[in-house]
Amino acid sequence: MASETTPNEAGDLTRRSVLKTSAALGLLAVPAVGLLSACASGGDDGGDDVEASGDAKNPFGVDPKKPLEVVIFPGGFGKDYAEKQKTVYNTNFPEAVVTINAIEDLRAELAPRFQGKTPPDILQNEGANKIPHGELIANNQYHDLQPLLDAPTLDDPNVKIKDILYPGVVESGTFKTTDGSSKFFVLKYTYSMWGLWYSQQLFDEKKWTVPTTWAELMTLCAQIKKDGVAPFTYTGVHTYYIRDMFVTLACRHGGTDVIKNIDNLEPDAWNHPSVLAAAEALYSLKKQGFILGGSEGLDHRQSQARWVKQDAAFIPVGGWLENEEKDILKKEFEMRLMAVPPLDGSVNPQAINAGAGEGYAVPADGKNVQGGLEWLRVMLSAKGREAFGADAGTPTVVKGAKEGLPLEDKPGLKSMVGLLESNGDFAFQAMIGDWYPQFGDGIWGPALGELMSNAKNAAEFVEACQKGADAIASDDSIEKQKR
Amino acid sequence: MKQRKGLFITSFLVLPVALYAIMVISPFLQAFYYSMTNWTGTNPNYKFVGLDNFKRLFTNELYSVYLIPALKHNAFLLIAMPVIVIALALFFAFMLNVGGRSRGSRIRGVGGSKFYKIVFFFPQVLSVTVVGVLWGAIFRSDEYGFLNSILALVGIPTKPSGWLSDPDIVLLLVMLVMIWSSVGFYLVYFSAAMSSIPTEIYEASMLDGASRVQTFFKVTLPLLFESVQTAWIYLGIIALDAFALVFVMTPEQGGPNHSSEVLGGVMYHYFSSSKAAVACAVGVVLFFFTLTLVMVSLRATRRERVEY
């Protein structure tokens, strides 16, 4: 249980009961809250500053007897891999007691612990109820991971960790701090991409050829429809699954600057012709009858099940699809991934929506910050990656990550790794939805859903997004990010 | 003597009043205070920001896309849902208790009324999550949906935009489920109230030649007025909530594109997206919304009590 490692809880309870008693005695809430905040800010600020020494065995100076609490979000990849990584950690520090807690609802369980300055030592902050990184960073609640980058790898004392990561990994985990400087706070561990999945088996059986342009895709869709299969399905219930098709089309058509301008909240960024072209392309899918009936009301598992049944030819999902549906996917299905094919006149047709994901961070107020950094070093070691690859079947951010992956058992993974290798130099990601969830969940997602279901046309979609982006840009209370 | 009695009674009240103060009043006051800070839920050093959160909720595009539809939807549910539930429950209760053909001079319900009572009460036994999942499967948008497969059986083409994924009807469907799951309880409640009405009154009205409709409007309804008023308050509370069904049934939990947003859902959304202070502000808005309605409805329904 999480509470085992929170010895301060008793003190916390007293504080709370004192607060409640004082309110009950008839004090007004305002002084009571003042009392609370006075208590809450009474702790020490930040953790110890850790620096990497040259000691390859223990560069962060981990106390070998100190326990370590690891919190894992089990949604995507389970927690078995962490149990295996624990044995790697215990090889060097056999006396350390490592507790691994798998928590689905991170916010509910961890927000009070962050507030009370008793967070875990390492945190995989992911899932629907994650606590946004920006929020914790704004409160100085993450420890800087620079020492990790400067430390030697566990496998080779002459190689530094920063030299084994894919390009872009450090950038995607770097955030602006309250004092305006940028620091590396979040290690994103997996390297993956979004795209359209299809079944090679179905394509062979129906003698369809994989399209390389949007025009070819449209011709193929007409053929697919004629053959009695729906060309597309998607989940309309979780609209962020639609983002990939839109950003890939726009980025391929107009170049990465189109997406960067959107991320940077440039005025009129959404009024770019490539954005409209991408929106029109998506709008046309339903208009032409290319979407499986009722897709707008299906959740991700329902739409994926229809796709596995070969009721639909294409589905836009991220790299985890093969893992998520492993119970119903057969190997003969031969799942394949392709990026959304480019529109006519695309200037950047090889772009893929790929990058690092699954953020791990070391909370600044954790009791064993050194141990937290060491845990990340273990995760990036050959044995740590092997444990993850075997269980999760997903590449990591360490270069040459396909080594040790079960490629032959997983046709989908194999096809994704192939794409990452061939188009990796053109990888890009849109950040706006992660940076500004109010925009991603409140404006962009709903607008994409309505675009797909034709409740909004392309021009209305662009207008709604531009209006929302302007609202973010003009809201002083929101910390702005730049790329 | 009188004073001592007062003291005696007060001593018994200390505990419940203290509990009420700790469990109800104090969180209320705290929510009012938090709604005027920039508390995210995790930052220990939050600041007082005055009414900024309220201003944002109503005027900033990013916030008003949630709040304004939610206010409208709750107001709509509050007006429509209790009326329909009470009307249906009263009608069924009347039919099951006094609506049957009278043989001799005995007052009775329609045939099989005991069986119907159990059937109508059934939804009340299910948890609201189960109800939501059940109706989600009925309204499922593709041809595996229960409703869609029935339509297909009788040869009507499936609704192309789905049911819950159609922004124009999603709120009506949520309300339909609320009605379905509430009618049974109020049917039993009104039945109990009706059985306490003395049968002589019915017999007298029957002797005077009153029809079933006349009996209902001139005898049953006036004598049930207090029960109806209570039901109205409970249903009003359900209508102001509606959160669980919206959360389980609708796309994007309040969608598509905010067309089934309710205040409880908006509050949850802000609590779970690092805006605890804004969530508290939504709670305060809901508080005043409720307070106004309670005052209006208490004024409007004040009348003299009928003794019998």
From TrEMBL, chain A:
Keywords: Signal, Transport
Keyword Cytoplasm assigned: no
Major location category of this protein: other
SUPFAM superfamilies: Periplasmic binding protein-like II (SSF53850)
The protein, known as: N-acetylglucosamine transport system substrate-binding protein
Family: Belongs to the bacterial solute-binding protein 1 family.
InterPro entries membership: Bact_solute-bd_prot1, Chitin_NgcE, SBP, TAT_signal
NCBIfam families with a match to the protein in the record: chitin_NgcE (TIGR03851)
Compartment(s) where it occurs, according to its Swiss-Prot or TrEMBL record: Cell envelope
Cellular component terms (Gene Ontology): cell envelope
PANTHER family assigned to the protein according to its UniProt record, in alphabetical order: ARABINOSE-BINDING PROTEIN-RELATED (PTHR43649), SN-GLYCEROL-3-PHOSPHATE-BINDING PERIPLASMIC PROTEIN UGPB (PTHR43649:SF31)
Gene3D superfamilies in the record: Periplasmic binding protein-like II
Pfam family, one: SBP_bac_1
TrEMBL record, chain B:
InterPro entries per UniProt: ABC_transporter_permease, MetI-like, MetI-like_sf
Domain ABC transmembrane type-1: 71-297
Taxonomy, superkingdom: Bacteria
An annotated GO cellular component: plasma membrane
Organism: Phytomonospora endophytica
This protein's name: N-acetylglucosamine transport system permease protein
CDD domains from the UniProt entry: TM_PBP2
Subcellular compartments: Cell membrane
Transmembrane segments: 7-29, 75-98, 118-138, 169-189, 231-250, 276-298
Alphabetized Pfam families for the sequence: BPD_transp_1 (PF00528)
